[in-house]
Amino acid sequence: MNTLQQTGRRQLLQSAACGFGALALAGLSSQAAASSSASSPLAEQPTHFPARAKRVIFIFMQGGPSQVDTFDYKPALEKFHGTKHDFRNARRMQVQSEEVMKSHWTFKKYGESGRLVSSLFPEVAKHVDDLCFIRSMHTEGVAHGPSTLFLHTGATNLIRPSMGAWISYGLGTENQSLPSFVTVSPTSAKGGPRLYSNAFLPPVHQGTALGRVGVPAATARFENVENPRYDSVVQQRQFDLLREMSAVQLEQTPAASAYESVLDSYELAYRMQSTAPEITDLSGETKETLSMYGIEEPETEDFGYQCLRARRLSEAGVRFVQISYADNRATPRWDQHGNMPEHEKHAKATDKPVAGLLQDLKQRGLLEDTLVWWGGEFGRTPFTQGNLGRDHNPDGFTIWLAGGGVKPGFIYGETDEFGQNAMVNKVHMHDLHATILHLLGLDHERLTFRHAGRDFRLTDVHGRVVKEIFA
Description:
By secondary structure, this protein is an alpha/beta fold. The protein has 13 helices and 19 strands. A hairpin with a 2-residue loop joins β18 (449-451) and β19 (454-456).
């Protein structure tokens, strides 16, 4: 303090500014946090038109669940099981002769809508009247890496912002003390951090990881949120000083916007100290709620915790929550090239938790303005690979949506009689991205960011809004 008085406070700040530039924490005091919410990049933004949904929960099924074994029943597979058939490979512009393989599971009708669902998902089937199936999906990439990147970012290469980051950029958050984009138990495989990256968008829009694959979801916490070393009074004094240092630094550099983006991230981290521990504390949840998600049942416990955390985050105002049924192995969970019966294990692990999430959202009145999106990066072939497997199929597969302004108990699009290629009312992944943005009140052609001399958007120069699925 004596040195500060002798040298002069401003002179010291000016000389130290460059050295402490990386520590700039402008706006970190609680007073600044409260007063700056209106100008924060995470402040709620006006939509381009009235929104049908306020937030999204994306349930990512890594590896490619088979559409013909889950939600797209094809009688032709039973009729021609074990026989050779000529399948058109739309991507390679060729015909290949392959052996047809029927599903290992039975289908039956559920709900008032009478939609057919595989015996793999008896719990989700109970909610079929709330689901909107798109059975004519097709996408880019034939391998997991490119297709997974395309699913999350709209591109198979380069570094592009993830969908959650785009939504954060376009809408902000409903809770200034939480991130607008959270990824629960993310994987480090098949894209890793690129699946929730902000890329060239401001850093505050990057997905914040809650836990990670390999760590039990029951104990998942936001990293480095609490500061056990200093109490709030000391932190306040530190923040005030560093904020003044930052102000000097920002006056002296032409790259002020880059500094401000980093400072916004630090400010959010500071505000999370009071909110994040409460959000991650599940001790107040009732026994009935835990049971609804399959928690305390060995097969469903871990994914049940993920789904429950997704509900809590959405309820608290997080704009985009991603939960991943994934691991860090080279072969993703749903990727059964030689052993389709493995689908049963993965369906068992996810069926009850996903059904519990739908039920919980609905009974809390959250499903009306929360869009739930279930799906993988592609589907699987209707013919065999090896004796019991199915290969990747990006040319025709199924996803489903629920809540958030989509038609309940509805089916859109069709694949061919075997389930290989999307044929009727085809929906490209660009179209799905455009449609989800539209449900949130965002025009995918106007949600742009200028970088490296051009305007970028999630859907690039593509995308058609599928308004036929809107309620």
